Input
Amino acid sequence: MKRFATVGLVLSLAATMLVGCSECYEKMQKKQDQIQVTCVPEVLTLKGSNVTADITVSFPENYFNAETILKITPVLVYEGGEVAGTPKFVQGEDVVGNYTAISRFEGGSYTQNVVFPLNKAVVGTLELRIEAKCFDECKETADFVPVAAIAAAKGVSAIQNLAKGIGQAAAQDANDNSIEGNTVYAGNNGSYTLLEANFQRSSTTTAEAEIHYLINSSVVRKAQLKQESIALFKEFVAANSTADRTTLGKVYASGYASPDGPEKFNDKLSAQRSKTGQKAMAKQLKDVEGLTYEIASYGEDWDGFKTLVQNSDIEDKDLILNVLEMYQSPVERDQEIQNMTAVFKVLAEEILPQLRRTRFTVDATYAGLTDEEILAAAVAGDTKLDVEHMLYAATLTNDAAAKLAIYELAANTYGDARAYNNAAVMQAYTGDVKGAQANFAKAAKAAEGCEVIVNNQAAAALAAGDIEAAKKLLANAQNEAAKAHLGAIALAEGNYQEAKANLTGYNLAVAELCDNNIAAAKAAIAEVKGADADYLRAIIANREGNTTEATKFLNAAIAAKPELKAQAANDIELAGLL
Output
């Protein structure tokens, strides 16, 4: 590691001090350019929330005055401020003290690890400010006096701060935002997942009714047509035959026979019942125009028989069900059941009459509103739309503000967890992370334990810089979205190996570059587009010594996102290209 040039030699105060104690400092002043300073790394790097470096200072032979103490303070100096590290004290051999002793004749060295709590990139210098105190015959000086300032390292590279979704929480540039399906990329504010609507444009409703017959009969009794189920069936058909956007299907009449008696007779009987039932229902619906009918017969209804027995409280129902399992032939089944005299009597009274019937069904299909109508109603704030239509409406526009307004309408109207979640996602997308956190909390309360919402909450916490909150939310998470957030946390904390195991794309490239793996960073970002990706490519090219390529990428990034110029001016990696 090469020694950096001296920034400032003996300062004016040191000159004044020499009047009284010239022998203490004169030789040290003359030879101070022989002091060797190395710093690892030469360009300081932010890791986690701190900048760290190992500084080694070597003093030459016949340099150090035996009766002097030096106070050497590492100070990071940059435009607009400075940060001081912990000072190191070294002393001459004749000084009574506990500091590191430097031999007057042989010289010596020390190594100091310095830590600066600085969470940003700066263009500046890490310098060692040297102050001295004398202990010779002219008496001890009361205070340390400035002697020199020697450069130790360049400014701070904060590559990890380029990662998206970690402590950025700012209004987003449109170039960084995108919505791909249910995934919303909110630039520096991270990525989020929208919850889907259970939307169906058309809906089908079915009405059913039955009429029952006496044993061995296909005659429709008048009393059967006065049942409440028949009245409701008629109302349904009449209402939906003229309803707006509604298509009424065929009226189906299906005839059945109970599974007792000869099979061929029952087949014929069920067919007769379907015909008489259809005619009877047609008379009931004679005022409804355009109806069509379809009849079908199914003979002996063994399936219906089994279901009724299973749902009954007949004492010997298990015995009956065993017969159904043992025998597949309708004749054998009928004979075996009739052989159980007491059981058959109960069946004849409670079960079989329910199977002698014609069953009526009809479907009404509602076509639903068009996309244009749904969106217009949602934009107008129509609260008559159900929550599914509102959530769907938000997907019909690309305007972020309109999406947010629709999701908020759904949330305020229905208190739906999906609406709160999606409103929060759009707030993060537009830069309102604080508002997003409030709505994510409402969503989590309405749908406790929803992984998507928990992951989104963690993303918002990261965007707000609250890493501990994000870690708490993700403590038990195992899904892929949680892995990405955990990778982002590891990156923010400087745990690059853990971060790389969980990240992909742009953030993986950042982690690889933080770990000084340029080839892997290039591979990770190869397919990533956008201004921030070009900015990162500029850093990679500059580290490779290709300033032409670095300048090209930086200019492309600034053209797409002008605010990156000010960022580059304070970035030690790129400032020289501007």
In short: The longest strand covers residues 122-134. Residues 1-20 have pLDDT under 50 and may be disordered. The chain has three domains: 6-157, 174-199+369-528, 203-366.
